């Protein structure tokens, strides 16, 4: 098999033709039945009966207490359709096929984690849709379950390229999305959408990848379910989850406390669903709602958090010092700067904003850390050094590094405007001007918002040193040009 597949269409062809043909065929057949208003019980039974193992597993799930609380024994697919419904049998069939198609081989940890997140998102989405839709909850479940189908397929069937990307992920390489595009020739988002369209999974699944259709209650339910499944990995009390609880309450018309309880109940249900579908190994990867388990998970997250790497930090500083005295280039300097701050100093999110649009705005030049791709896509801030209207303009005018969120900077809190808080969140951060001699280049920002850990004095010292070294590099480059 060719292990250097590159580009969106090449990956879709590879996954369809050599790695996942059986799963793709089942998905497409089941989807076609849904689109036929006159689809019969026998037509669905015929699709499933082509695969004896699939038939057996569908019957086992159909006889579970989750789907068949009356415990009346179901021995045939036709009886299952009558007892638990056409839509539920289709949902079970597709879910079981996905598990078998991906987990039967030696599954990578990334695949198991993403599949667990997908099941969690699917249950969340289906239960949310129950508030706003009178039908089609099953379609919402499947759209959320298959939201990351391209990425799932890659981790399941990507071979040597998946091994290489997994190594990069384990090492915490900055700008992971960029690494994905360089290695695959496409993004996971494009691969997800491409496979959804190739397999003809359905309009709702396709629409859920855009933002233009969020007015559609089905699409909104899928979107919320997917985002809740992702946010839960950072803890039920994290900032992103709090925002989602509020959004869910507004969307469904229930109180925020009730919305939180709905989310927690759905997480517990997701564990039951994964076990019912024969994927018990996924259960432990779905965030627990048990207080003791929450405490243990929190401790495990703390143990795996980004930690300062003094060897890497010192090497980055030495490299920048050499660049300041020899011929280097801006791209290499910025890569070294961000790597030193992120992996060396252990700063979870780092961003460089440069003056742009004839020095009237700050725009993101580069950024690393969880969630930083959103900054690169849409962070724009008016620049007004003369009036010092906000903290970005203030530090550029004052030409000093600041540690915001500590008593020494409390008098400047009003300069952290609501627009900045909306984009960056609340809490401590470092901020400093980046200068090339006397020339204003932009502003460097760093925080620890991913986990909410407090920043440390030694990190601020390192931050200031990196700002100085970057300034010397830029001044040297300016002189040579």
From TrEMBL:
InterPro entries: GAF-like_dom_sf (IPR029016), HDOD (IPR013976), RNase_Y/CdgJ (IPR052340)
Matching SUPFAM superfamilies: GAF domain-like, HD-domain/PDEase-like
Domain HDOD: 20-215
Domain of life (superkingdom): Bacteria
Originating species: Stutzerimonas marianensis
Pfam families for this protein: HDOD
Designated name of the protein: HDOD domain-containing protein
């Amino acid at each position: 098999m060719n292990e250097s597949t590159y580009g969106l269409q090449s990956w879709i062809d590879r996954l369809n033709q050599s790695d996942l043909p059986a799963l793709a065929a089942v998905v497409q057949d089941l989807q076609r039945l849904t689109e036929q208003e006159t689809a019969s019980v026998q037509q669905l039974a015929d699709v499933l009966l082509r695969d004896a193992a699939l038939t057996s597993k569908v019957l086992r799930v159909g006889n579970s207490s989750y789907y068949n609380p009356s415990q009346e024994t179901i021995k045939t697919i036709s009886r299952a359709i009558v007892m638990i419904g056409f839509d539920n049998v289709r949902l079970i069939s597709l879910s079981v096929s996905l598990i078998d198609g991906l987990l039967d081989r030696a599954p990578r940890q990334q695949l198991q984690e993403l599949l667990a997140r997908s099941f969690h998102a699917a249950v969340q989405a289906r239960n949310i849709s129950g508030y706003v839709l009178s039908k089609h909850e099953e379609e919402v479940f499947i759209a959320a379950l298959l939201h990351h189908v391209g990425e799932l397929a890659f981790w399941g069937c990507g071979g040597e390229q998946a091994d290489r990307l997994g190594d990069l992920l384990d090492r915490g390489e900055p700008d992971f999305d960029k690494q994905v595009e360089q290695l695959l020739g496409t993004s996971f988002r494009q691969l997800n959408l491409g496979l959804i369209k190739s397999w003809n999974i359905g309009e709702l699944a396709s629409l859920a990848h855009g933002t233009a259709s969020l007015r559609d209650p089905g699409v909104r339910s899928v979107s919320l379910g997917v985002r809740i499944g992702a946010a839960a990995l950072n803890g039920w009390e994290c900032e992103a989850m709090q925002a989602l609880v509020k959004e869910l309450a507004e969307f469904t018309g229930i109180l925020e406390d009730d919305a939180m309880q709905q989310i927690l109940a759905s997480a517990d249900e997701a564990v039951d669903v994964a076990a019912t579908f024969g994927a018990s190994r996924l259960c432990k990867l779905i965030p627990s709602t048990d207080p003791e388990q929450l405490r243990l998970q929190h401790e495990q997250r703390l143990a795996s958090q980004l930690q300062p790497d003094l060897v890497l930090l010192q090497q980055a500083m030495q490299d920048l010092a050499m660049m300041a005295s020899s011929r280097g280039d801006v791209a290499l300097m910025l890569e070294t700067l961000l790597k030193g701050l992120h992996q060396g100093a252990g700063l979870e999110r780092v961003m460089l904003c440069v003056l742009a649009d004839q020095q009237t705005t700050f725009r993101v030049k580069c950024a690393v850390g969880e969630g930083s791709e959103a900054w690169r896509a849409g962070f724009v801030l008016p620049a007004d050094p003369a009036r010092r209207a906000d903290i970005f303009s203030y530090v550029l005018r004052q030409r000093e590094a600041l540690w915001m969120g500590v008593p020494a900077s409390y008098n400047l809190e009003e300069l952290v405007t609501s627009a900045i808080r909306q984009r960056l969140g609340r809490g401590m951060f470092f901020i400093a001007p980046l200068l090339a001699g006397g020339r204003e280049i932009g502003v460097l920002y760093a925080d620890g918002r991913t986990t909410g850990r407090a920043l440390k004095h030694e990190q601020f010292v390192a931050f200031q040193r990196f700002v100085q070294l970057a300034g010397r590099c830029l001044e040297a480059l300016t002189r040579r040009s």
